[in-house]
Amino acid sequence: MTTGSAPKTQLTWRGFVGLMGLFAGLCTIFALVVTVAEGWQEHRQAQWPAAVARIQGCGVDPTSSGERSQIICRLSYVVGGDEIVTKVYSRSIPSPKTVIWEYPSNSIGRLEEWVDAHPEGTEIEVHYDPANHKKAALVATDMPLGGPRTPSNLRLLGFVAVSCVVLLAIARSVNTTRPRT
User: Fold this and answer.
1) Average of pLDDT values for 68-80?
2) Within a domain: 3
3) What average pLDDT score do residues 66-83 get?
């Protein structure tokens, strides 16, 4: 007797694709929350007063764990007659010691090139928090992995949202009826 139910392999395939679609949906929600939160923070930082800071020293240094590296710059700028000294950081990348394969290749080289091009005394624009003058942000910068994250967050959000829609559409369109013989 034929019941019209789908073969087990089709249900397994449909279930897997549907599960991946739901996972992509959860990733979309997470990426949306992060994008909105960081976008709002970057919007607020862009409204902070701007100052021209002088680089006192920059380097590509390991993070506290030692497994990642980042640009760390010591800056000074004047606010209301007071000299403020603070640090700004790039996002981190895997340290050369821990990298087996990296994309894009030679990421650490890009960081080192930027540091070499910005010696002590180089001027850079920062925006500082009016409530805490030592808190500075790079709103617009050529520093690799520095500055706003919202553009890359939006690309990731778009990718996972499209992946969710496509996977769920594929899972829905998988033929669930067995042809009659």
Assistant:
1) 91
2) no
3) 89
Structural domain includes residue 35: yes
- The pLDDT, as a whole number, for residue 162 is 94
Q: How many whole angstroms separate alpha carbon 147 and alpha carbon 81?
A: 26
Q: What is the pTM of this model?
A: 0.70
Q: What is the CA radius of gyration of the chain?
A: 24
pLDDT of residue 178 exceeding 60:
no
Q: Specify if 179 maps to a domain.
A: no
Number of Cβ within 10 Å of residue 22's Cβ equals 14
Of 135 and 67, the structure prediction assigns the larger pLDDT to 135
Which structure tokens are listed for 149?
A: 């994250």
What does the pLDDT average to over 51-66?
Answer: 87
Q: Are 108 and 98 in contact (CB under 8 A)?
A: no
Residue 23: which domain range? 8-173
Q: How many domains does the chain have?
A: 1
Q: What angle do CA 112, 66, 136 make, to 5 degrees?
A: 60
DSSP-derived secondary structure letter, 4: -
Q: Are 72 and 123 within 8 A, CB to CB?
A: no
Question: In Å, how far are 84, 97, 138 from 129, measured between CA atoms?
Answer: 12, 36, 12
- Answer whether residue 105 shows pLDDT above 70: no
Does residue 33 sit within a domain? yes
